[in-house]
Amino acid sequence: MSAHEEKYEAVIGLEVHAQLLTASKIFCGCSAQFGAPPNTHVCPVCSGMPGVLPVFNRKALELAIRLGLAAHCRIAPRSIFERKNYFYPDLPKGYQISQYQTPLCAGGYIELPGENGDAARVRLVRIHLEEDAGKNIHAPDCSLIDFNRSGVPLVEIVSEPDIRTPQQAGAYLRELRSMVRYLDVSDGNMEEGSFRCDANVSVRPRGAAALGVKTEVKNMNSFRHVEHAIAYEIERQIELLEAGERIMQETRLWDPDRGVTRSMRSKEYAHDYRYFPEPDLPPLIVTPDLVEQIRTEMPELPAARRARYTAELGLTPYEADVLTQERELSDYFEALLPGLDNRKTAANWVMTEVLRAVNESGRPLAEAVPAPAEVGALLKMVEDAAISLNAAKAAFAAMCKSGKGAQATVAELGLLQVSDEAAITAACEQVIAAEADKVAEYRAGRDKLFGFFVGQVMKAMGGKANPKIINEVLRRKLAAN
Ligand code: ADP
Ligand code: MG
Ligand code: ZN
């Protein structure tokens, strides 16, 4: 810990915008799909023509409730939409429809995978519904606007200032992204802008109760950027305080090329949004029946899976975390388990072989690796000592390329292990005869030499002998005097 870190404590609160996975926009029937040619998903409603009326998308409500339940929020039986008024070229109406006084979801928390398995919680202030704005595209000689994104449904997830370090901010974002993906609430795609984060950062003397003045950092589209920007901002604020200066409340932009934050606007120029209830939309009424119905459709979430993997499968918190971050990977791991005794082997296999194959191929899991049944069959052969672990790795690599099954591949590559005790005994006897000096040393007490003998026998048998049988035979032969 540096002197600064001992003296100061950082306080961080995150605001995340996640795009909901609806087919259409939140107040009109236009497609909410990303990537269409500019201004092809536009109608009078989402381009802000006068006199049109918004119609609320029920699917957006259901998805937001689903996330609220997953985050242990209270779901408001009655909430309202409000107009947040400001002028910006990408906002054709001159206001954004959002929720302010009464958000759909309040309270709740996100459970972080703890460093030592202790679950740390970050409390939430709220989760509310709102529409997205359009997108400005700045060319060298002009600015263009694409309204495809205008009116796309978002949830804004606002945390309490419970986060203390850049790493914890990263863990919170990873967990939240993992959750929205498990829930099919959002695709969580940061590059396409469907998962965006603003970080509020302040510092205070360690032990102080009052919060320091915060700055808000925008424009970060990767977890790495968020962590770097927060770390930079903490250092910058501490240096100012150490120099006897004051922190100005302001919005800052992260410049990933230079690795610094820059002032964008100070609080004096803060917007007065003049919120008022949206007159064209009725209150949002959520019945207990709807909430209960959504609750029954909830999938198992990463936190529950982590708990199950450590308690029931005997995995470490770290293994449980890696295996559960993506639902597809976690499902794959679970599909390997039936028929296998050794859960650890299956876990290690997924964390090393499967993840490597996925990363190297750059393709989605389902395309990059064989079906779980085939890989399960391969691991079963290892358990039954029909093949060695190294042989299984070779077979797996071949199967990823060829798409062939486990049995066929093992046969084709001649990987079946020799479990013929007579053949192994003969090889052991040969090695013992050839290494008389080492045998004498071993018998005189150099136990460590045992591994050497195993290696020699394995070598003599072309690496394909069953190591368990080699061990048994060698122990017997070396003990006999
Ligand atoms: P604003 O009105 O500036 O948007 P809010 O009170 O709505 O501020 O809080 C926005 C976010 O900033 C929340 O995530 C909250 O936890 C966080 N936050 C509020 N005060 C502080 C502070 N002093 N330091 C760090 N984060 C803070
Ligand atoms: Mg804010
Ligand atoms: Zn539209």
Quick recap:
This protein is α+β, with helices and mostly antiparallel strands. It is built from 17 helices and 17 strands.
Sequence-ordered SSE layout with sheet pairings:
Elements: H1 3-7, E1 8-19, H2 58-70, E2 74-75, E3 78-79, E4 82-85, E5 95-98, E6 105-106, E7 109-112, E8 120-131, E9 135-138, E10 143-146, E11 153-159, H3 166-182, E12 195-205, E13 215-220, H4 223-242, E14 250-255, E15 260-266, E16 276-277, E17 284-285, H5 288-296, H6 302-311, H7 317-324, H8 327-336, H9 343-361, H10 365-368, H11 372-383, H12 389-402, H13 406-412, H14 421-434, H15 436-443, H16 450-460, H17 467-479
Parallel strand pairs: 13-14
Antiparallel strand pairs: 1-11, 1-12, 2-6, 3-17, 4-5, 4-16, 6-8, 7-8, 8-11, 9-10, 12-13, 14-15
Helix pairs in contact: 2-5, 3-4, 6-7, 8-11, 11-12, 14-16, 14-17, 16-17
The protein binds adenosine-5'-diphosphate, magnesium ion and zinc ion.
Adenosine-5'-diphosphate (ADP) binds near residues 13, 14, 161, 200 and 201.
